[in-house]
Structures are given as C-alpha cells and as structure tokens.
Amino acid sequence: MPDAQVTLADQVKVALTAEFAAAKAEAPAFSADETLWEYFHRKDVDIWSAKNRLLTPVLAFDQFEEIFTLGRTDDARRERSRAFLAELACLVENRPPAAVREKLDAGVRDPLRFNYDKPSCQVILSLREDFLPHLKGLKQEMPALVHNRLRLKRLSGTQALEIVTRPAPQLLAEGVAERIVEFVSGGRGGSAGRRAELEVEPALLSVICRELNERRRALGQAQITAEQVSGNRREILTDFTSAAWPTSPRRCVPSSRITCSQNPATATISRWRLRLSFPESRARSSISLSRGGCSASRTGSARSAWS
Fold this sequence. Notes:
38% helix
C-alpha cells in the first residue's frame, strides 16, 4: 500500500517503472521531481517493446469518480487530488505545468531537453455517468473533456458475443460464449437475428465473465464449461460482492491494467498491472493504462472480459 505521503502521480510513475521492467520494455527512468508532462515530452523518452516495437502508452483511469469521493474525504486527500488533477490536465492539454514553466524561465530546466510537439501518450477517464457533472467542472483546466466523450450504453447480443469471444476464445468450450450472453441478458438468442435483439448490460457482463473465469481457475480447468454457466446470476453476483466488500476492513485495492500499443488504433502489444489508491481506504480504487477504446470523456475504457 502506498504511503500517505506518496502523491497520486508518483504512484503512476512507480507502477509504470515496475511494469516496464516486468514486460521487458525499454524505457528511460523517471528523474527526481519530474512531472508526467516532463517525462513524456523528454526527447530521450521512447518506449520500446521486447520485440523492438515503439509503444504508445494510453493511460486509462478506471473508476475515476473516486477522485471526487474518496479523494475528498479530508483536507489531505483533497490536496492530493487537486494536485493530481492539475498535473493530469497539463498532460492531457499538452502544456507544461506552471512549476515547470517557472524552472524553464529561470534556467533551471533546459528547454532543449523537451519536444513540445511530441505525441506523448493518450488518456482515458472512465467513470459512472452520475459523476459527469463533477467531470464537467474540470473543463476549464481540461477543455478536451467537452469534446471527447462516449456514453457506454447497453450492448446488443451480437456485440456482447464479440466481447466474450475475441480476447481469449481458447478459454471457452464450444457454445459457451452464446450461453454466457443469454445468461447475462436473461433472454434466449438462438438465431443470429434473435441474438442481435438481446440487450446486455456491460458492467454485468464484465462481472459474470470475471467470476466464471475465477471459478475456472479455482477448478484448474482449461476452459469454462456449460455446466459453470448453468447457475444463476444472483449466486455469481453474491460471490463477487462478497469478494469486493468483505466484512473486515481492507486497505488494498484491486489491480487494473496497463496496455501499450504500437499505435492507439492497432493491436495490443502487452498487458501490465498497477494500482492507484487512497491510503487507508476500504473502497475500491484503481488506475490502468490501456489501449484506446470507447470512453466517456475519453471517459469509459474498453475492457476485455477475460483480463
């Protein structure tokens, strides 16, 4: 668990450093007291995969609404959240932070060290729809929020089937993907036409797939079988909520994903995991870097069912 004195931006940098190493990606180290904008705009910063492919990080902050809830429970957290939002805004809008500008003007930082037009990374913010007013409150600092939004609606049965099957088809026994879609929607598909008419809640699909995969792992099986899907949604959701909110206080948070791609529109190269947390919090809080996809305010990350 990160120390209360560690900033949220520092959590990103520490986790990135660890995950770059774990993925055997070649990336320059962060300098002391360096902002995210400085790092991603340094001329010497290029991130290469183990296969010698240039990577473009896409930072996807999941459950971002928690910066407006857990991040505001006391004065210390409010200050940490304010500082992080200010640094994030500079990264999104591609402008040097005020402290960096002062150092450049004073000659403390070498202006020739940076490439100001460098396409450094992309940012996705994923949050619940009822927190959009809070997000809009940041539009002066981050005007891009107003122009890049996508609402994640219910999926059709056809879309849900693609989400279930594409990430890891080898984990599904024959016919199981269709069973999962029907199981989550509460309806029957049958033909492709009838399946397209089904409505599937994305969040529920994610939970069901995650729990089915956890059960597969616990049983030591190579694939999810039809028998595992034959239970009921209430049982799976009960298991999920019991694991997510145990009765005893916990200070850890669930890990999420980091993904880098050769290009934001191309195939994923590697997946990593990191954590962003508010110290001594029981609630779940996470941050991930992921390949670009659907978002709401570049805000809603596209996530595979089998991460």
